[in-house]
Amino acid sequence: MSNVKLAVIYYSSTGTNHQLATWAKEAGEAAGAEVRLAKIKETAPAEAIASNPLWQKHTDATRDVEEATPDLLDWADAIIFSVPTRYGHVPGQFQQFLDTTGGLWGQGKLVNKVVSAMSSAQNPHGGQEATVLAVYTSMFHWGAIVAAPGYTDPVLFAAGGNPYGTTVTVDQDGNMVESVEPAVRHQAKRTVDIASRIKG
């Protein structure tokens, strides 16, 4: 698996999806992949960020994290996305990033990328599954290969048993409710494994 290039791309306002992405990065590296962690550019106004202390704290703490670009997608063999749900869909910041990929798509450079997705929300049924599936809808247009975790390891059940991608509930204080780290690591390892098979 050492020849696989994995991009772990996330959007996070208060830190949950940054943590999921960090676990995925670590697991990808442990599986032998070359991994780059990148954040989606923040487009919310400064006053909106400042109105939420957790959002401001996370923004300040991750100021030096690489920002995702279409060039990163071109570089990668495999991509793991981690984004929170917004009304059962992806955040506007993430959609804006997807909208910059038309050039790569038009050149066929996103075909056969191996992709997987994760999400979070404040309620157990707050739209996480719909958000993961919304990410995959765009991936089908790319011609990418979706590497969902399915039910391929018992650790998925401790995380809530989502076969589409790891999802987590976050309480009002920003704490994860379910124990999802093992599921995230399994999903990342599986993504790298599938990418290694595709890449040959």
Features:
42% helix; oxidoreductase; EC 1.6.5.2; 200 residues; globular; 6 strands; FMN_Rdtase-like_dom; alpha/beta; Flavoprotein-like_sf
Radius of gyration (CA) equals: 16 Å
Query: Which term fits the overall shape?
Result: globular
Low-confidence stretches: none
How far the N terminus sits from the C terminus, by CA atoms, comes to 10 Å
**Proportion of beta-strand residues:** 15-25%
Mean pLDDT: 95
Helix content: 40-55%
Q: Helical region count?
A: 9
Q: Give the number of DSSP strands.
A: 6
Task: Supply the helix-strand structural class.
Answer: alpha/beta
Q: Which sheet architecture does the biggest sheet show?
A: 6 strands, parallel
Order of SSEs: EHEHHHEHHEHEHEH
Family: Belongs to the WrbA family.
InterPro entries: Flavodoxin/NO_synth (IPR008254), Flavoprotein-like_sf (IPR029039), Flavoprotein_WrbA-like (IPR010089), FMN_Rdtase-like_dom (IPR005025)
Enzyme class: oxidoreductase
Keywords: Oxidoreductase
